[in-house]
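To the wet lab folks,

You asked to see what we're planning to order before we commit. Fair enough. Below is the target structure as tokens, and below that is the sequence we designed to fit it. If anything looks off to you, flag it before the synthesis order goes out.
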């Protein structure tokens, strides 16, 4: 599966496109106060492989990454518009929490290094990630401090972030398409390029 990635970041200059039909990404504005949340706006930040396959993953083939703005309280809380990579939740078959999983380590080391320059990494803030237990009693483990992390089940039912409140609902703002790069790494991919993505909230304890 491919993971949706989120972080809180503040840039003095961002490239913003507002609305579903604005893909220009060319309007440079200073500051972030003008950028609304709830997925009404997008920002472009960092670069990653997208339209190439994993066999052609040279640095020169990276492309600007589009992020949906979930919230703006002076810092931007964002999630990638597409599934950027395909990585297992944990490298071994054992029950682990978000704190312990290998995906968390990969996101905050290899992904950061691949997607962002040194200056961009400095603009990504380390956030307190609150890890709440699953609805059926599965334990989420300790809270963590991360620069990049997965969304929780509770965040993807929060209308203030732009999501529908019905956690069983499919489609709409929960849809994320796989990139060609992600698909080439054997991610589950529909005929419309839609893909599955990880949450950090644990599933059914049984």
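Sequence we intend to order:
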């Amino acid at each position: 599966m491919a993971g949706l990635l989120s972080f809180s970041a503040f840039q003095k200059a961002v490239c913003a496109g507002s609305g579903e039909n604005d893909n220009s990404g060319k309007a440079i504005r200073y500051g972030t106060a003008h950028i609304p949340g709830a997925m009404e706006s997008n920002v472009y930040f960092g670069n990653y492989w997208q339209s190439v396959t994993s066999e052609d993953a040279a640095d020169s083939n990276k492309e600007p990454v589009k992020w949906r703005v979930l919230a703006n309280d002076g810092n931007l809380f964002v999630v990638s518009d597409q599934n950027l990579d395909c990585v297992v939740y944990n490298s071994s078959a054992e029950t682990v929490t978000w704190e312990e999983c290998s995906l968390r380590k990969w996101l905050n080391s290899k992904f950061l290094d691949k997607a962002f320059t040194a200056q961009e990494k400095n603009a990504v803030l380390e956030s307190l990630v609150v890890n709440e237990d699953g609805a059926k009693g599965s334990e989420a483990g300790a809270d963590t401090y991360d620069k990049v992390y997965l969304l929780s089940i509770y965040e993807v039912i929060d209308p203030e972030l732009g999501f529908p409140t019905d956690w069983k609902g499919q489609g709409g703002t929960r849809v994320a398409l796989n990139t060609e790069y992600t698909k080439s790494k054997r991610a589950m991919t529909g005929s419309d390029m839609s893909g599955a993505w990880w949450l950090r909230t644990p599933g059914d304890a049984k």
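Structural context that might help your review: Residues 1-5, 9-30 have pLDDT under 50 and may be disordered. The longest strand covers residues 62-72.

Thanks,
Computational group
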